[in-house]
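User: Some background: our group keeps a shared notebook of sequences we're curious about, and every so often someone picks one and asks for a predicted structure to add to the entry. Today it's my turn. The entry only has the sequence so far, pasted here. Could you supply the structure so I can complete it?
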Amino acid sequence: MVTNIKTLWFFLILGILSFIYLYILMKKMNVTNVLGCYFLSNILITNTGLIINLNLELTKQAPNQLIFWTQKIPELSLKPALLLWFIYILFSKRTIMSKLIYLFIFLTALVSIEIVFVHMGYLEWVNWNVFYSCLRYSLITLLLAIYSFYLEKLIHKEKEVNTT
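Assistant: Of course. Here's the predicted structure to add to the notebook entry:
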């Protein structure tokens, strides 16, 4: 029980830091794009998690409320923040090789969060593995990048319209 509370506080602190870094990201990117991508990433992460866990029963969660919230905090803060920072790096003027390295780093971080929960006994992979998690977050990243690209185009198109 004490370990559960320490883990909850650890992820709560990481969640607060994630929101601070999202605030910093809002100064670098368009606020509308950051908020739109944040909400879409939450929808994609939550819905794919529900499909995998409840509908397909490929994973099992412990029925404890404290464990549920310990898993939900990174899902609502840390994972979207990691995805948004990668989207920022993806559309920056870096080389393709450095973008691929960052993709590997961010995917590793996202999957590592799940692996931590598996090793702690909060999550059980029934017919699931690391490859499927990498594939899940890769698809989420791809969808988020496409959304961000077109949202940014739409935002710039609205700025060009003469309102007089």
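Suggested note for the entry: Residues 145 and 157 are 18 Å apart (CA to CA). Residues 31-158 form one domain.
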